[in-house]
Specification:
By secondary structure, the protein is of the alpha/beta class. The protein folds into two domains: 133 residues, NAD(P)-binding Rossmann-like Domain (Rossmann fold), CATH 3.40.50; 197 residues, Dihydrodipicolinate Reductase, domain 2 (2-Layer Sandwich). 32% of the residues lie in helices and 24% in strands. The strands form three sheets. Strands 8-11-12-7-13-14-15-16 form an eight-stranded mixed sheet. It has a six-stranded parallel sheet with strand order 3-2-1-4-5-6, sandwiched between helices. Strands 9-10 form a two-stranded antiparallel ribbon. It is globular. The structure holds alpha-L-sorbopyranose.
């Protein structure tokens, strides 16, 4: 496809779920999109030699290393792709930016506001030297989501009144699920809030063009102790037939909050890993004075659109199949009606990153955009801890029939 001989040599840190998703995108992007530069999957990094060697072979990387500093110090690496747990995002990204490497960092940007501010400041300095940086909020690159943003920007919904966002999973409902890194604050920064709540915070701000200005929140940790994972498998292990030792869960299992957006909209957000039966259920509904639009990740090729300007006898939610060539990103794939999947959002992410770096413009979302998400995460955490706006329901003082 691409005739360019310009290469962007990528070094990726991490080889778990996001490492695999990013690898698929790096493998595919130049075969689908005609871009001003080609991504070369030069080096993958992971701490375990055997596992990272296997990952290099399985995911299609030229070589591997067990020290991420190798990537930073080499002058034949142009891009650092950070796919590690949140507790190493800042250290790796700061070193990469200082070394003049372009950086793509998975979400959420960091584990704390302080780290996110430092990363954003470093990105600004590096930007002056032509070094680009982006945070990997991949759902922005689902064609239906990009179209949702366009409908709002074109005024098709009128004045935005309500935003209603949920991101629901259920992978830790079993109390025997082990205490993996995502359940430890020092590794992950927060639980469902930062992992999946960050997505709906970014996505709703991206779609509406409005920023969350204030929140009132509750969070809950339903299972407070979990078996320590076996070093090797990461599964709960028994020790000599006895129940494995346990450790404390130090993050939220669920976060629920109301919010005001700076354009006047009222919003509700729910991020939970205890929504039994919901596997990766992200849903956003936007209500405006002239219409509404709904995105459901389980039906990511579609949008539901209600146009209140239509004659009343014709009004109703229409189902838009977002697979036409004119729809965002879709001309690169298949004919209309041939749908795409979750992994395509990462290919679109790499497309936009490569094009921005190769043409010398700043990709979005920037670290500053990701800092805004981090600030919302922090406000939710503070609100939940303070409980300040919480009004207890007074007891009825009668014995209600239960
Ligand atoms: C786990 O909740 C996870 O892998 C998130 O970390 C990703 O960002 C999300 O896209 C899918 O679920």
């Amino acid at each position: 496809m691409s005739t360019t001989d310009k290469e962007l040599r990528v070094g990726m840190v991490g080889y778990a779920f996001m490492g695999a998703a990013h690898s698929q995108a790096w493998r595919t992007v130049n075969r689908v999109f005609d871009l001003p530069a080609r991504a070369r999957m030069a080096l993958i990094c992971g701490r375990d030699t055997t596992k990272v060697a296997d990952a290099a072979d399985r995911l299609g990387w030229d070589a591997y290393t067990t020290d991420w500093r190798d990537l930073i110090n080499r002058d034949d690496i142009d891009v650092i792709d950070v796919c590690t747990p949140g507790d190493s995002h800042a250290e790796i990204a700061l070193a990469a930016l200082a070394a003049g490497k372009h950086v793509l960092c998975e979400k959420p940007l960091a584990n704390t506001v302080a780290e996110a501010r430092a990363m954003t400041a470093a990105a600004e300095v590096a930007r002056a030297a032509g070094v680009r940086s982006m945070c990997g909020f991949n759902y922005r690159r689902v064609p239906a989501v990009t179209m949702m943003r366009q409908l709002v920007a074109d005024g098709r919904l009128g004045v935005i009144r309500h935003v209603r966002a949920t991101y629901l999973q259920d992978w830790i409902v079993d109390p025997q699920f082990p205490l993996v890194w995502r359940l430890q604050k020092d590794r992950a920064g927060s639980g469902a809030l930062g992992d999946i709540g960050a997505h709906i915070i970014d996505l709703t701000q991206f779609v509406t063009g409005q920023r969350i200005s204030g929140v009132s929140a509750v969070t809950e940790t339903f299972v407070k102790e979990r078996p320590l994972p076996a070093e090797s498998s990461g599964l709960a292990a028994t020790v000599d037939g006895h129940k494995a030792p346990t450790g404390p869960v130090t993050v939220d299992d669920a976060a629920v909050f109301v919010a005001r957006l700076d354009g006047g909209a009222l919003a509700t957000y729910e991020a939970s890993r205890f929504a039994t039966g919901r596997k990766n259920a992200l849903r956003v509904e936007i209500n405006g004075s002239l219409g509404s639009v709904i995105f459901d990740l389980e039906r990511l090729n579609e949008l539901e659109f209600y146009d209140a300007t239509r004659p009343s006898v014709e009004q109703g939610f229409s189902r838009i199949l977002v697979t036409e060539g004119e729809h965002p990103y879709m001309s690169a794939w298949w004919p209309p009606g041939h749908i795409i999947g979750y992994e395509h959002s990462f290919t679109h992410e790499m497309r936009d990153f490569i094009e921005a770096v190769a043409t010398g413009v700043d990709p979005t979302p920037s670290f500053a955009d990701a800092l805004q998400v981090q600030l919302v995460l922090d406000a939710v955490t503070r609100s939940a801890e303070l409980g300040s706006s919480w009004a207890e329901v007074e007891p009825a003082l009668i014995t209600a029939a239960v």
